[in-house]
Design a protein that fits this description.
Elements (H helix, E strand, L loop, with lengths): L2 H4 L3 H5 L5 H9 L11 E6 L11 H14 L3 E6 L5 H4 L7 H20 L3 E6 L4 H12 L3 E5 L12 H13 L4 H10 L12 H12 L14 H20 L3 H4 L2 H14 L4 H12 L6 H8 L16 H6 L4 H9 L15 H5 L25 E4 L7 E5 L7 E9 L2 H9 L7 E5 L14 H9 L7 E4 L10 E7 L16 E5 L4 E4 L3 H10 L10 H9 L17
Parallel strand pairs: 1-2, 1-3, 3-4, 7-8, 8-9, 9-10
Antiparallel strand pairs: 5-6, 6-10, 7-11, 11-12
Helix pairs in contact: 4-11, 6-7, 7-14, 8-9, 8-20, 10-13, 10-14, 13-14, 13-15, 19-20
């Protein structure tokens, strides 16, 4: 391919006498005469001092830009927003979390489209900005590589952010002192990087690598490491290679690639948010993907990694034994992955994994296929009269596979947390948190504060929690989220009352309330939708257009329905 063809987009911006004003402005930001002849590579940075997940990404973006220049392109760094779940968790600010996924995808699309970049490197370090980067790549469909900002190193005594949330519950129950809570708070987060277990950030990084949109091992590097800087440099060189080979995101983000991502998420025991985000990413790539695909793939893929929150180990400990590549090689050899999928390396997944060595002898972080932690997926898609359009449960089996109990209903996360901390929730209760869905929140907040409090109070084996909201990857216990239709749409969860008997069965994949159709119909007739406190701004815009959680909580209609 001729060099001018590599400038498919940027040449429209900089070529010819009439583009002199554009070139004049670009000279002011550092372009030389030679740079106008080079492909322009946008470097999307999610750097921000709002969260440790992203505080180091400015330096990574600069390394990627320098590498783009060395590889024959012109790297141009630009920023987008990020918000912190861990900081906003349990507050009204968390409403903006999932909304930010759409804002980030929109902003990356807008900058790349407006500036005429020929390729894209996007560096994300926290839950929503990672799927958002890939959503934008699918929309733009020009050569692109995603880079994960990397995981945080463990805090003292192998602590992480979930340790702090659970310590709040422990303090409330009197298990630890105020001084002990402070000590956990002061030592859990030692520096830059995303939350340290197989929570949403590490889950999505692994899924994106398995999908082929990041280079090998990008998901399994610490944020503060030479390996992560090298990953950024390799990414820019990879984009130049993709330009020359004319390989674009939609060549990579195929149906088979999404199946690979789902399979790896299951094997790692990953976050329920992967369901939401993978469906949303598939929508942008015009790949039909539904809740049922998680059930189908989950029936043949076991849980193999003993990682937090339900397991013992942190991401840094998985990195130390080789990351996810040896796991993927095992899965490929067992026929659990599609090896013929193209990746951003310019080679197929099978070619990338051909020389990967297995884990060292004696490690117990990743089990063998014949000795799994769970024979089938921990992500259970449940249906029933409580969730006619589906719900997502994260049940590893350690919590048991069935739960029946009395409904304790709350119309907000704050009300539920207050009751849990006040010992008003007892063994045998099913905590129901509603009006927290995509429209009801609006924004579908994560329920880490109440689930952390339940675990911290020692109620994990005896209390279940269901919600039309969602969960942090750090949540564990008998939890069911994404209940659809949500309460704000008049779903059954809006009609539940204290004392109703709920049955959750992960084996039969059912979630039901012991009420007959006549009783439910009468309650529905009497029900009135509460007035939302949100009447303007981005939350109101989001509420007006967002889809159901079962459809990825996206803000665009699926393209294949046009």
């Amino acid at each position: 391919m001729e060099e001018k063809e590599l400038r498919r987009y940027s040449r429209v911006v900089v070529n010819g006498d009439e583009r002199a004003p554009s070139r004049a402005m670009l000279r002011a930001v550092g372009f030389t005469e030679e740079d106008f002849k080079r492909p322009q590579i946008g470097i999307a940075s999610t750097w921000s001092m709002t969260t440790p997940c992203n505080m180091h990404i400015r330096e990574l973006a600069e390394a990627a830009a320098k590498s783009a220049d060395e590889a024959g392109g012109k790297g141009v760094v630009f920023n987008t927003i990020t918000v912190s779940d861990g900081i906003s968790m349990g507050t009204s600010g968390m409403r903006y979390s999932l909304v930010s996924r759409e804002i980030i995808a929109d902003s990356i699309e807008a900058v790349v489209g407006a500036e005429g970049f020929d390729g894209l490197v996007a560096i994300g370090g926290c839950d929503k900005n990672m799927p958002a980067c890939v959503m934008a790549m699918a929309r733009l469909n020009r050569p692109a590589v995603f880079v994960y900002g990397g995981t945080i190193r463990p805090g003292a005594k192998r602590r992480d952010i979930v340790s702090v949330f659970e310590a709040v519950g422990a303090r409330s129950s009197g298990t630890i002192s105020a001084a002990e809570l402070l000590e956990v708070e002061q030592t859990a987060i030692p520096g830059p990087g995303a939350c340290g277990g197989m929570y949403t950030a590490n889950t999505m990084a692994s899924a994106i690598e398995a999908m082929g949109m990041s280079l090998g091992n990008s998901s399994a590097q610490e944020a503060v490491s030479g390996a992560k800087v090298a990953d950024c440099r390799r990414a820019s060189a990879a984009v130049m290679n993709l330009l020359r080979k004319d390989i674009k995101p939609l060549d990579i983000m195929t149906r088979k690639a999404f199946e690979n991502a789902i399979a790896v998420v299951i094997a790692l025991g990953g976050s329920t948010n992967a369901v939401l985000h993978l469906i949303a990413m598939a929508r942008e790539a015009c790949v039909p993907l539904s809740l049922e695909d998680f059930t189908t793939i989950g029936a043949r893929v076991p849980v193999l990694a003993d990682l937090k929150p339900s397991g013992k180990y942190l991401m840094s400990e998985l990195i130390a034994i080789g990351g996810i590549q040896p796991l993927m090689k095992r899965m490929l050899d067992a026929g659990l992955l599609h090896g013929d999928c193209m990746t951003v390396s310019g080679a197929t997944l099978a070619e990338n994994l051909a020389n990967v060595e297995d884990y060292p002898q004696g490690q117990d972080i990743v089990r063998s296929l014949d000795s799994p932690i769970k024979a089938h997926s921990h992500l259970s898609i449940l249906y029933g009269n409580v969730a006619p359009e589906g719900a997502v449960a994260k049940i590893t089996g350690k919590e048991g596979l069935k739960f029946s109990g009395r409904a304790r209903c709350f119309d907000s996360e704050e009300a539920a947390l207050k009751a849990i901390l006040a010992d008003e929730v007892v063994a045998g209760d099913v905590v129901v948190i509603r009006f927290e869905g995509p429209k009801g929140g609006p924004g579908m907040r994560e329920m880490l504060s109440p689930t952390g409090a339940i675990m911290g109070k020692g109620l994990g084996p005896d209390v279940a929690l269901i919600t039309d909201g969602r969960f942090s990857g750090g949540s564990h216990g008998f939890v069911v989220g994404h209940i659809s239709p949500e309460a704000a749409a008049g779903g059954t969860i809006a009609l539940l009352e204290d004392g109703d008997i709920l049955h959750i069965d992960a084996e039969l994949k059912q979630i039901d309330v012991e009420l007959d159709a006549t009783t439910l119909a009468a309650r529905r007739t009497a029900w009135r939708r509460p007035r939302s406190s949100v009447s303007s701004g981005v939350l109101a815009k989001y509420r007006a257009v967002v889809s159901s959680a079962s459809d990825g909580a996206v803000t665009i209609p699926p393209a294949w329905d046009d």
